[in-house]
């Protein structure tokens, strides 16, 4: 973390990204998403190819998004994720997040071939799993866990409705 207590984030994303955002805008979105989830973050490095990680300043978290590439060229995306996995293997103290659906698909293909690593996690597309994902990030980064807000709210609502049904006013 930096002096302000923010998680230092590096992002490697493909050139294909969003059709209506630049690479910089897409990276800013990731930082905004982390901050919105209560994980104070600051972007310290961004690149389109993982080979550039050798030029990165020190960081805590690497976000990988090769979804656009995977949708267009699976083999090229798989090669990029393979480079990221090799980097993660050489840097076990850094957390790597495979963020998008197609990136996760690429990584799972690679895991079937060469195995998983403890410092690589995948982000689910299922919103019900996001709280657990964010808590995994918090735990790795040494931040306090938060109550699973969506699940806890749903549980409280179900409990309230069952109590109300049994005890009408």
What does this protein structure show overall?
The protein is an alpha/beta fold and 169 residues long. It has a single domain (7-166), classed as Rossmann fold. Helices cover 48% and strands 15% of the residues. The protein has a 5-stranded parallel sheet, with helices on both faces. Helix 1 (23-36) links the parallel strand 1 (7-13) and strand 2 (41-47). Helix 3 (74-90) packs across helix 4 (101-114). The longest helix is centred in the last third of the chain and has 18 residues, at 149-166. The model has no long low-confidence stretch (mean pLDDT 82).
Brief rundown of the structure:
The protein is an alpha/beta fold and 169 residues long. It has helices at 23-36, 67-72, 74-90, 101-114, 130-141, 149-166, and strands spanning 7-13, 41-47, 61-65, 95-98, 120-122. The chain is globular.
